[in-house]
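Issue: copy button drops trailing tokens. Both records pasted manually instead:
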Amino acid sequence: MRIMVISTPIFRLGLSGLCGYGGLEIIAWQCARGLAAKGHQVSLAAPDGSECPGANVLFTGPERETNEHQAYDRYWKKLLEHDVVIDHTWNKWSLILKQENVLRAPCLSVLHAPVNTMYSSLPPVDKPCFVCISDDQKNHFEALFSHPARRAYNGVDLDFYKPMSVSRSRRFLFVARFSAIKGADLGIEACKKAGVGLDLIGDTSITNEPEYFDKCKKMCDWVCVPGDFSFKASPFIGDNVPPEKQIKMHGSKSRSECVHWFSQAHCFLHPNQRFREPFGLAPVEAMACGCPVIGWRHGAMAETIKEDETGWLVNSMEDLVGCIGAVNQTEGSGPLVPITDATRKRCREWASQFSIQNMVNSYEKLCEESLSTGGW
């Protein structure tokens, strides 16, 4: 098949997987790379300087300086040369040609955010071929629009995300962009109440929420000093806090560095109370590194976490504080037992179903279905 994969114009994609923060963009890159490795003729629309083994890269302009409409102007003619299109962007400009009856190729429109935040009504296209990244998101889509969708789970690179030979700490970990929907402040508040230490890693380059970031910094005991990677006490904290209970903000880290953090953390926090998580890459990456997850019972978390075996789901802040305290124990019984080596092994085994290969196979089957049936 001649397949075109479209990424956003935000982050340049490269041989290391990603030259920036984004989760959506790494999925688009792995999708293109994986389909090319299976023998398909793949083109990838991505920012200037992007690379993708086996694929023809169509440059869409300088990263973060080009919007999706401007990027579309650079690649739209190439859409006509492909059998099927996989669009991972936010605005789905590829559907314009479908509306104009110019493009015959099916367009697989992948949703990377809660459905109601992306569409109030479906675009006027026959068989728009929407693809959801979890069953929860698919169910939400079909309930809102009374239109069928398909599901393709996101995948993580299990050769990259795997436990490192480092000592486990007793500290908890948060990894996400510093956006209110990701709930860093909720994690900080819960860890303080539970009396445990927390390390926070996150990107601020695409959040555009400086007030929220400042709020989180003010809640921390220590903040990493950019440039010299040292720590200084937060000027907002007056009382001395024991080292093992300190809340530390480390700033942005590379994906390689995150593997280290996942491998040394006691447990991962994903406090998605404000966000109907459509998938959640970081929790799966954590589990692949042997780190269990505590998340809100919201969105796809019940699909990506095997409750009481690879993590725990909570329904309130009180639940979150109690769960953190329980899994921090060295002894105990019942569903919230202390984390053991067996727990960490189960995490890795469970995460293996969310592999890059399984994701690529799913997209290949959806491409074949869309071509044989005309879409859905």
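Record 2 (pasted manually too):
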Amino acid sequence: MKKIMRFNEYENLIPLTESAYPGLIQELNNLERAEPIHSVNEGQLLNKIKNSFSKFFLGPLSRVGIIDEARRVLLELEIDILEQKHQKKKEIEEIEDQISSLSRSDDKEKIRALLKDKESKFSEIESYIKSQGLKIKKTLDFIKKTIDGNERRKEYYEVGRAEDEIALAELEYKLAKEKGDESNLKKYLDKVNSAKADAQKKAEDLGSEIKKDGEKEASPEQLVLDPEKEKKKIGGRKVRDVVKRKNELSREIIDLKEEMESKLKSLKRKVDSKTLKKTQVKNLMMDLLELSSALDAKRNLLKLLNGLGKSQDEISSKLHSETEFTKLANKINQSITDGQDANTGTKKIIAGIFSNATREGSANISSDKINDAIEKINK
């Protein structure tokens, strides 16, 4: 079965693709920035995700475009702080060296002047860090507002943020190397490697989730079986047409089972993490019931076609008997109709999961019932 994204499956990607409103863009433009010496990480992991799923618009005016730019502002501020601390520390160490040299002499006035200068350097960097810290807080508040509690936007930000941590760790390593701080080099190198591993995992997880969103579900036309079309597919009364349709149904059934299992596992994750919203319950239930109807109807039809016989002669004799073919046509109608029955088959199993949730809320969905449904679907 060809996988085509259905309209309601765009729901999970809307937070990434939707355009940001003008006020949000203006707030971004108003954020105070820094001008660090070292270049800011370009975010190759997120670029790979965007390139892999280019059919989704992830432009600069989308929500994720705003998140990217706000992250850049945040990273510039953090890099700038690291650079300024490194520079001031160097200047303070130079002053300390001068004080150490003068301590052998009796130039107390010069020493007092250097100590005052040293104290001034400490005050400067403390004030600078405090000032930049306020800008960082404002930027983080803006990012939180942009994410607006949406799980997919949060995941996207966390992937980018994990990659930013690589840039920060690499800069710390570079500055320690420049300073000749051999005792801390291994610590910083371990930090770089840990940040890379964390970023790679988060990027892979997000890429996998987006891919699942983009490759889910058959189109509504493929889900609904039309009795008249099914009759036409074997209307030539040729054995090869029956065999072809049986093979198609077998593949479609496998796809539907995989699709339902994926949705049920996603539902279970939301239930277990208590992130399932009451407003999502009805949509999830309708999607799963629609899939279960299609699965039951296709299973019924495949069973019917398999019942024509195993050998070509058996199948051919029934197809060319007017009485048998009329019975077959009527059974096709019935097998598809039976797939809609909420009291039997997969549809009954799915309805059981949501039996209390639609009236009493998402908290009444049982993980055990979901696991049981997955097991029964795959039998």
